[in-house]
Amino acid sequence: MTLELARLNRRFSDYPALNDVSLAIAPGEFLAVLGPSGSGKTTLLRILAGLDYPESGQVSFNGRDFLAAAPRQRNVGLVFQHYALFRHLTVAENVAFGLRVRPRRVRPKRADIDARVEHLLKRVQLEGFGRRYPSQLSGGQRQRVALARALAVEPELLLLDEPFGALDAQVRVALRRWLRRLHEELGLTTVFVTHDQEEALELADRIAVMNRGRIEQVGTPREIYQQPATPFVCEFIGKANHLALRREGERFVAGGWAFAGEPWMGEHARAIAYVRPEHLTLSATPTPGAWRAHLRHVYLAGAVAHLELDVAALDQPLEADMASEDLARMGLRAGDGLYVSPSHAVIFPLGRDGKPLAEDRWLWRVAVPAVPVRLPLQRPEAGVSPQRADGEMQR
Amino acid sequence: MSRPSRRPAGWPRLLGRGLLTLAAIAFLVAFLLLPLATVFVEALRQGIGAFFASIGQDEARSAIVLTLLVAVIAVPLNLVFGVAAAWVMARFEFRGKALLGAFIDLPFSVSPVVSGLVYVLLIGAQGWFGPWLDAHGITIIFAVPGLVLATMFITLPFVARELIPLMQAQGGEEEEAARVLGANGWQMFFRVTLPNIRWALLYGVLLCNARAMGEFGAVSVVSGHIRGLTTTIPLEVEMRYNEYDYVGAFAVASLLALLALLTLAVKSALEWRYGDELAAHAPGGR
């Protein structure tokens, strides 16, 4: 009982939109297809809806061959990025459309249709909006009408194309939490396409990361974020500093810091490490191997502060994140000197052609965590609890 | 909306504006209103009785009937073709699309007389297919079918050109939504496509109809000017004029002029009422 995509290929005149894409989606799952524009994710969704067809490959749903069925036989609900509401029909008529076009013998009675429309409008919190036209609604309301219209035909599969793309930030967050709750109530197998990683990480049970027509990784949001499978996923999901590593004996080094315990047994000479900004440990006092850094700039973005550091030993800037509160406690200012070292990194060896080899990924973490800085230590009222925390980490 | 000017409107500016406006009005009166008024004045020169007498003649009546007949056949056919062509042009990408667009515009760029001649050369008695048609007892040139063909050729672009920009601007997403929701092709067309283009379609049909009734050049070539059989209103006007029947010519011409005024009125009403929906259209080749 799954939706299965097997070896799909779809070419547009000069580039492959889908390149050997296989994916299995479990019943009731909420799957995000995440990727930059042009990565093929919308093509994938259109193939599922029957609006486009692959050159080769199979799609089956509950054992049924999807590609042999016309869109109207697939019983899917599709919500378009720009909603595609029928502009000449009222909200209620839009929602009722899928029921009214049914052949007479399976068409519900007029009263039943009205009742279902009423029920759906209530469900999407648009009671009393039935007589309005789409042009009289806000973006978020249109979005919910589109959803109600898709749900009216009682689809077995719900497809959402950038469902929040055209909304402003506040509405977007509220609506996606609401959608998540709705999904939990309905238990409908849902595939949604997005380029917004935050949306995917927050909403989805699993994420399929796409790039240039290929699926780079499929996994839970946690796996995608913590164990990115390819350099692309490292760069696309969250932020990452890149470090060029060279092998010295049994260790890989960058600017004096050693990444010990390499798993390739000397096969590779160079590697690239991706270090997330929150995986850089800052310290006011020198720690063994740590890079000397110079705080160039602090960007305060609400709860999180982004620190731009110049590291002479690496001859490149690094970006580190920390809680704004911690930053305030430390009293760090632009121009200060400090020490920085990585705590986690995703490392790929470089092949002879200088390209990273994704299959030889090395998830590295520091053996002995460096003491995170908690300055100023001499001020007791501010330092008490952080000091205790440090002590625990050292033990 | 015009931005309010910050500069005070001094005398020279006002004078300049007034003169320009006056020039524009004078031009309109001289070249549009005066000729139009002349038509009615000349038609009524010998009184209302003479006017109705010349309209009531058999030739005039048959010309009116023929004109309406040609329009009734040509306009619906071009409506169907126009919608189909616009659909293809707006919804699909294919090799030769630009060429198809150029072909749709062809009747605008070719002189009507030339188009008429082409038909005569192709299917006239001395033409390529003439002998074959003759052998099968089919008469097209110098008969009603020829008039319909020529009129269809001339008015072919009106509906398609009106719809293509609008359908391109609207995109096909609503149609796709309808299909995914379970609509079949006809349901999609009649419930989604047609309602979205109805005003532009009506507008295109109006223009098409006006031209179909008023066309002279191409029709003149294929008609053969057989009085009472193959003369439409414009041809009847010319024939009466050549026979020095000025009142008769202008009386019949006034019918065409009235028709034009009616079209203009309906068109203006449409523009006023549905201006937003028509705004997407760009006049092509006219």
Unreliable segments of chain B (pLDDT under 50, ≥5 consecutive)?
A: 279-286
Strand content of chain B: under 5%
Give the distance, in angstroms, between the N- and C-terminal Cα atoms of chain A.
49 Å
Percent of residues of chain A in beta strands?
25-35%
Q: What is the count of DSSP helices of chain B, taking H or I runs of 4+ residues? A: 12
Helical amount of chain A? 25-40%
Pair of chains with the largest interface and how many residues each contributes: A-B, 24 and 16 residues
Q: End-to-end distance of chain B, in Å? A: 26 Å
As a whole number of angstroms, the C-alpha radius of gyration of chain A is 26 Å
Number of helices of chain A: 10
> So what's the oligomer here?
heterodimer
Give the mean pLDDT of chain B: 86
The low-confidence parts of chain A are 372-395
Mean pLDDT across all residues of chain A, rounded?
A: 87
Largest sheet of chain B: none
Provide a descriptive summary of the structure in words.
The complex is a heterodimer of chains A (395) and B (286). With 395 residues, chain A is α+β, with helices and mostly antiparallel strands. Chain A has 10 helices and 21 strands. In chain A, the strands form 4 sheets. A 6-stranded mixed β-sheet of chain A has the order 6-7-8-3-9-10, with helices on both faces. The longest helix of chain A is centred in the middle third of the chain and has 18 residues, at 169-186. Chain A is elongated. The relative contact order of chain A is 0.10. Chain B has 286 residues and is mostly helical. Helices cover 78% and strands 0% of the residues of chain B. Chain B has 12 helices and no strands. Chain B has helices at residues 11-43, 47-56, 58-91, 97-109, 112-123, 130-135, 144-170, 173-180, 185-214, 217-223, 233-242, 246-278. In chain B, helix 3 (58-91) runs parallel beside helix 7 (144-170), helix 4 packs across helix 7 (144-170) and helix 8 (173-180) packs antiparallel against helix 9 (185-214). The longest helix of chain B is centred in the first third of the chain and has 34 residues, at 58-91. Chain B is globular, with a radius of gyration of 23 Å. Residues 279-286 of chain B have low confidence and may be disordered. Chain A binds chain B through residues 49-51, 70-72, 74, 76-78, 80, 82, 84-88, 97-98, 101-102, 149-150, 153, and chain B through 173-174, 176-184, 187, 191-192, 195-196.
